[in-house]
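Reopening this one. Same input as before:
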Amino acid sequence: MDGIYPLNYRLYENHGWQDVEGAITEEILLCIHVNGKELATFMCTPHDPDELALGFLRSEGIIHSLDEVRLLTVSASGSCVDIWLDRSEFELPKRRIITSGCGGGVTFNDLTSRQAPLNTAVRITPQQVFERMRDLYRAGSLYRVTQGIHTSALSDGERLILTAEDVGRHNTIDRLWGKALKNGIPTKGLILLATGRISSEMLAKAAKMEVPIIASRTSATSLSLQLAQAWNITVIGYVRQNSLRVYTASQRCIEPLEEVR
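Same output, byte for byte:
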């Protein structure tokens, strides 16, 4: 399975040593070229590089639909994705922002740029959050083997629609968008579930996907909550078996589930 690196190691447990045949998360450098120009190189797991590249281009606003991609090829090693657009003109972004994502995330967007507030009738109950997070844990096939990887998913509240795993938590969001593009699934109004910290770049990606609710098993950063307040996004953190914290736009989770999208 791509993303798994087999190895043997020594385990100390219960006052004794033993040899174990195990695995860790595989990590590579992936290079993305657009119209023959190198756009970005970042750390990721090696599976489905086409989906990660498509999602990254969509997240950065370089493409808005799969129809804009004339050709996509992946190198034999899986470490380079070449994308040719349906237009010849393409200028590399002049400003690059290194983000706090695992593996050294990168974005060309100013995180303080203006986004329209997400005014939707989407709601979710605490019980639904607990159930969907349990679904998220069960969906982590690579995590069950390596335990060194992040998982994210898009949900309608009743079920998981798409899932993605990667060594970088921000990469999982791009992977989700790439899967959505390939499968013709709109992301507007869906709910984002994540195992990693909710940072500002993850919040910005969710806003562009028009996802009004984000839930994670861990914390959020101060900048992500400031952006969430400005963009009317509900941020839920520290989801446990029977407890959670709603940091912003709490009406989507605290009020009864009365409205339908």
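So the earlier flakiness isn't reproducible anymore. For the record, Residues 212 and 233 are 5 Å apart (CA to CA).
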